[in-house]
Amino acid sequence: THFSDWGSVPGMQLSPDVATVRVGQSLPLTVVVCDDLPPGQGNTHGFPVLACDSNVVLNKVARHWSVNGVAGGNATIGTVGVNGSGEAVYTAPARAPNPNPVAVSAQISSLVDKTLYTLVSTVKVMEPAKGWQGKVTYHEEGSATYPPTAPMTGHVQESFLYDETQTITEAALDDPTYPEDFTLKLGAVATGSVAESAYTREESSTCSGGYVTEHWWESATDLNGKDSVESHLHVDPDGSYAVHLEPIGATGERHETHRDKVTAVCPPPDPSYDESGTWSGPAFVNGQDADLEGRIDPQRPDTISGTITRAGEQGEVPTTVTIHWEFHRLP
Hints:
Layout: E1 5-7, E2 11-15, E3 18-22, E4 26-37, E5 49-54, H1 56-61, E6 63-67, E7 70-71, E8 73-74, E9 78-82, E10 88-91, E11 102-109, E12 116-126, E13 132-146, E14 153-175, E15 178-204, E16 211-235, E17 240-245, E18 250-264, E19 273-285, E20 290-295, E21 303-314, E22 317-329
Parallel strand pairs: 3-12
Antiparallel strand pairs: 1-5, 2-4, 4-5, 4-10, 6-7, 6-11, 8-9, 9-10, 11-12, 13-14, 13-22, 14-15, 15-16, 16-17, 16-18, 17-20, 18-19, 21-22
């Protein structure tokens, strides 16, 4: 059996029973039923624990939602109400209340004996964050082998690697009247490498005796980048957040060695040759923009974190992109 949460007291309770939110933020509350779960049966702790599962019926019959005994709450201590989806939501006030924390409660009748119970969630309201610290890491990697453009035969092999870390150096509040909009300045450092090797062969009828052109080449590119970037972090009252990632890219030198060979049986002059050489030139690679989105965990109200993995592409090379971010509010 899958349970949605773990509790400390058997029977009905509000979940979360203890939480922390920032001013202006919202906290969903649900009625759960907690029962003893002995070792085994999904309990791997080796000792009895309480397993809690949300109860749809109890959530619908919960009534008389209040904050510190005030029905529906108010602007000073925060408000509580049921939204269009039937979910109870506590919304913190614009300033931390006194006393703090507050008690968000609901009354519910037992489905067995009609006894009236009062369920309470203790919620601490914290003032706006002074800023954020943390970083975003970006990793993209891939390789591919594919044929050259017809009528040539042979193979082309490519590999691609790109890493970037963006670290918050400053977080400035955009609008003092809305405490969850920040302009972020980040220091970005990027590294990358691209490698390619190939062999192609092409036959033509330029000469009646045969005309074959062959190419071999290998290239290697190491790249680096360093810059400062700016982004925007927005957190909605329900804890939903969004921040945009724009990689800075990396530059370097591409170093290539090649060999070109023509083998021909033609009337004089003989066009056959076999030459080798090197070449170097500037190169640039970059990652892909991404929107980092999610919802703050009420149990970790001062942390924004997440990971996304998705398919990408660099030229002819399919890649895998992994982005991880973790921000912490400054006290």
